[in-house]
Amino acid sequence: MKKNIEDILAKDELEFQDIVTLLDTEGDEQKLLFDKAQQVQLDCIGKKVFYRGLVEFSNVCSKNCFYCGIRKDNTSVERYNLEDEHILEAAQFAWKNKYASMVLQAGERSDDFFINRVDNLLQKIKELTNGELGITISLGEQTEETYKRWFKSGAHRYLLRIESSSKVLYNQIHPDNDEHDFERRLSCLRTLRKVGYQTGTGVMVGLPWQTYEDLARDLLFMRDFDIDMCGMGPYIEHQDTPLYKHKNILWPIKKRFSVTLNMIAILRIIMKDINIAAATALQAIDPMGREKALRIGANVIMPNITPTLHRKDYQLYENKPCTDEGAEDCGNCMSMRIELAGREVGLGEWGDSKHFFKRK
Ligand code: SAH
Ligand code: SF4
To answer: Less CB within 10 Å around the terminal CB: N or C of the chain?
Structure first.
């Protein structure tokens, strides 16, 4: 069996069945996969890890994804919307601490008030930081016009996870209506590229009904779509969501964790120069989860710089880590963790996806 893994890893190009086999590795075989991914990482993008200060500025959401704790119909969530002033302070914190980039994330809304507000915030952040702070946004599905407006106002990377590239599975984890349409999500991803964003996507790993074959197709989807960045994490059930009732058929949480690492490692092997984030959800399962990801292919980490008061209300899943630490604590803890993982922090550098510039 081991020989088989070695043979697969020696290939120039991985095929569907190879990926399925690699996804199912653990123990010594998994170590071979990880060693290869680490080698590719060091050879192609080096030791540097980049910070994106994450601000989860509102948990108000107009959608009802079956897996997510802040879905519209969850009435047990205390909804919040950070004041502009506090978002700008967080941006300033990121800039002063040489994070070089920030991520603005929130529940999805597409009303005019929201669109204008984000537009205005982007311009203010650029102004406040001398145009030096890079901005990634993760604000869901919007019209081309909105994507263009935000791009023009200073956002240059966008994260929109496909969640699952299987239309069947996508439909199983979302309500059946126009607001949660698979084709629309795909079309948004295409639009983001067209507008000029460095485009990131990703999936959840360990969803109910998901198979290794689905996950292998997810990786091939990312390769074929030629994405610039990826963020993927384990699915973690949340009790106030419709998907919770299927928790009995989930893989054990440790397996979801381990397969997520396999996904990251394989993605690094098949897409050598993209940016891959070590998702926070990894840390909800293993205190060293993100560091493990950094060692085997991930090169971006998103320290949470949301003002502490509201962190506990942005619970997409259970056991979300670091909900009661402030931004300073987060930053210090993070640089220590990165060094432990044998990586260096690329302070003051945007750390854009190398792939993006080759693609253009
Ligand atoms: N509203 C935006 C951004 C916030 S959600 C959007 O949907 O794009 C960001 C990501 O959180 C989602 O893409 C999803 O992959 C992840 N997420 C939501 N619920 C989750 C859960 N229960 N477990 C793991 N990840 C989850
Ligand atoms: Fe809203 Fe995003 Fe959660 Fe879906 S995943 S309910 S769009 S915050």
So the answer is: C
For the question of whether the overall pTM of this predicted structure is more than 0.85, the answer is: yes
The string of pLDDT tens digits covering residues 137-147 is 999 999 999 99
Distance CA(296)–CA(261), nearest Å, equals 8
Give me 308's structure tokens.
């502490």
- Res. 3 pLDDT band, cuts 50 70 90: low
Q: Is 171 exposed, middle or buried (0-12, 13-18, 19+ CB in 10 A)?
A: middle
Tell me what the mean pLDDT of segment 168-194 comes to: 98
Using DSSP, state whether 73 is helix, strand or coil: coil
As its CATH architecture, domain 2-359 has Alpha-Beta Barrel (3.20)
DSSP state of 248: G
The set of protein residues with a Cβ atom below 6 angstroms from ligand 1 is 67-68, 105, 107-108, 138, 140, 160-161, 163, 204, 233, 235-236, 238, 281, 316-317
Rg of the Cα atoms in the chain = 19
Geometric angle at alpha carbon 142, from 141 and 144, rounded to 5°: 130
Question: Which of 161, 165, 257, 319 to mutate for ligand 1's pocket (most ligand atoms within 8 Å of CB)?
Answer: 161
